[in-house]
């Protein structure tokens, strides 16, 4: 009986190892591959556009004031009307716009990107997958 339990534990352990490795690879892959057509990753931004990106922070002013991507422009839903002029001053039609918010569950960046496309008619607008956390490593 003990021998059978030991053999069962070994078989389960052998089966569990590839499952754990596969799960870890899948999690890493999901973090690096955009899930929506307008999303980009940090690697995609660095590889495709280098430093020629206009970063837009869609978070609250308090979070922006606490920390943000260098030279990012604040543009959020709550202050859209008062901030859009500053954004347009910084915007260059030849430079892609990448919008970010807090992270995976934050929809503010998609809302701002959609609004830029519909109201401002800007086509090269993308959303940073993982948001501020992807940039800051948190």
Present the secondary structure layout.
Layout: H1 2-32, E1 39-40, H2 42-49, E2 54-57, H3 61-66, E3 73-74, H4 80-90, E4 97-100, H5 108-119, E5 125-128, H6 131-136
Parallel strand pairs: 1-5, 2-3, 2-4, 4-5
Characterization of the model:
The chain has 138 residues and is α/β, with parallel strands linked by helices. The protein has 2 domains: 1-32; 36-136, 3-Layer(aba) Sandwich (Oxidized Rhodanese, domain 1), CATH 3.40.250.10. It contains 6 helices and 5 strands, in the order H-E-H-E-H-E-H-E-H-E-H. Strands 1-5-4-2-3 form a 5-stranded parallel sheet. Strand 4, helix 5 (108-119) and strand 5 (125-128) form a beta-alpha-beta unit. The chain starts with a helix and ends with a helix. It holds the Pfam family Rhodanese. Residues 51-137 form the Rhodanese domain. InterPro entries: GlpE_sulfurtransferase (IPR050229), Rhodanese-like_dom (IPR001763), Rhodanese-like_dom_sf (IPR036873).
List keywords for this structure.
single chain, 138 residues, alpha/beta, Oxidized Rhodanese, domain 1, 2 domains, 5-stranded parallel sheet, 6 helices, 5 strands
| Highest CATH level, the class of the largest domain | Alpha Beta
According to CATH, the fold-level topology of the largest domain is: Oxidized Rhodanese, domain 1
The radius of gyration is 21 Å
Biggest β-sheet description? 5 strands, parallel
Structural class computed from helices and strand pairing = alpha/beta
What is the count of DSSP helices, taking H or I runs of 4+ residues? 6
């Amino acid at each position: 009986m003990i021998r059978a339990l030991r053999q069962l534990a070994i078989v389960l352990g052998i089966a569990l190892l590839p499952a754990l490795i596969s799960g870890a690879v899948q999690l890493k892959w999901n973090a690096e591959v955009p899930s929506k057509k307008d999303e980009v990753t940090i690697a995609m931004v660095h590889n495709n556009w280098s430093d020629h990106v206009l970063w837009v922070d869609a978070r609250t002013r308090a979070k922006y004031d606490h920390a943000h991507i260098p030279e990012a422009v604040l543009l959020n839903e709550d202050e859209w009307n008062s901030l859009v002029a500053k954004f347009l001053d910084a915007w260059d039609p030849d430079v892609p716009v990448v919008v970010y918010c807090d992270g995976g569950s934050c929809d503010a960046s998609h809302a701002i990107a959609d609004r830029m496309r519909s109201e401002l008619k800007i086509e090269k607008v993308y959303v940073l997958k993982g948001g501020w956390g992807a940039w800051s490593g948190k």
